[in-house]
Amino acid sequence: MSTTPVTVIGLGPMGRAMAAALIRAGHPVTVWNRTASRADELVAQGATLAATPADAVAAGELIILSLTDYPAMYDILGPATDGLAGKTLANLSSDTPDASREAAAWTEKHGGAFLTGGAMVPPPMIGTPDAYVFYSGPRELLDEHEPVLKVIGEPRYVGADHGLAQLFYQAHLDVFLTSLSSLLHATALITSAGVPAADFLPGALKTLTAIPAMIGTGHELAESLEKGEHPGDLNTAIMMGATAEHIVRTSEAVGVDVGLPEAVKSQYDRAIAAGRGTENWTALYEVIKA
Ligand code: NDP
């Protein structure tokens, strides 16, 4: 059992799951949340509810933040900066890479140290062997706090730049959110014909898992994107672009939102207009980067 005292600030579903995992691992855990009642279950499990953010900061060597965004961190810790000297903040909240860089500079100005974290699993998976968290900031700081942080999920270090863990988090969420929206859009298309969603969604999930089968481990795709070479005539931009247009027209015909398929179609249109129509669909990368 570790005795490193840890503070968790922000008790949404993620912060509660993190604090519960840390309590289970035997850490003395202090918590603080704007809405104090969200701490009730954790207090019953052994956490200490701090009366103020300053008390919460004083109680932990490591202060884990799990908030909606970074402005919330300043709202909470702005009046408690006197206690930050010698403390490490690990902010596992979503925001922009620049927000993480600015927060690191702000914390360091007040004598503290800062790690950016991006938790890659939903609350029920926190503390399980499948959980992982991207971190960036000083490597030695992560090494120092790894025994505590690994309780939440396997730490994956992505670099010294404080913005990087946020960027990795966002890039993964970019894939995730777009895929989730596409599932809902596609289901709306299907149900517009009176077909139950259940007749469609299990098959649609197989389409999602067919993507790795199509593009392999990602290494070949990475090489092609890095070289700017897009050989292959099985899935050309012209062929895929025509399908993208059909999805837009079908969506319009049945009165389903066209925002997502129009964005996809526009990428194909621009790749074809740039003379890349007979290249592999990966040529879209050239117009997306631009
Ligand atoms: P919630 O939105 O449920 O919780 C947010 C927390 O932030 C609450 O404790 C809330 O306090 C607090 N908060 C927000 N604004 C302020 C403010 N201005 N001042 C003080 N406190 C504030 O989020 P989650 O727990 O779901 O997520 C936390 C972070 O983890 C987010 O950045 C999210 O993107 C990320 N994440 C979430 C995942 C998920 O599946 N939920 C998965 C991976 C990452 P109060 O209770 O008083 O409202």
Automatic annotation (TrEMBL):
Domain NADPH-dependent reductive aminase-like C-terminal per the UniProt entry, residue ranges? 161-289
Q: Return the InterPro entries for the record.
A: 6PGD_dom2, 6PGDH_NADP-bd, HIBADH-related, HIBADH-related_NP60_sf, NAD(P)-bd_dom_sf, RedAm-like_C
Give the family per the record.
Answer: Belongs to the HIBADH-related family.
Its keywords, alphabetically, are:
Oxidoreductase
What is the protein's species of origin? Herbihabitans rhizosphaerae
- Output this protein's name: 3-hydroxyisobutyrate dehydrogenase-like beta-hydroxyacid dehydrogenase
Write out the coiled-coil annotation as residue ranges. none
- Which Pfam families does the UniProt record give? NAD_binding_2, RedAm-like_C
Instruction: Please report the stretch or stretches of sequence annotated as the 6-phosphogluconate dehydrogenase NADP-binding domain.
Output: 6-154
What's one GO MF term for it?
Answer: oxidoreductase activity
Q: Which PANTHER family does the annotation name?
A: CYTOKINE-LIKE NUCLEAR FACTOR N-PAC (PTHR43580:SF2), OXIDOREDUCTASE GLYR1-RELATED (PTHR43580)
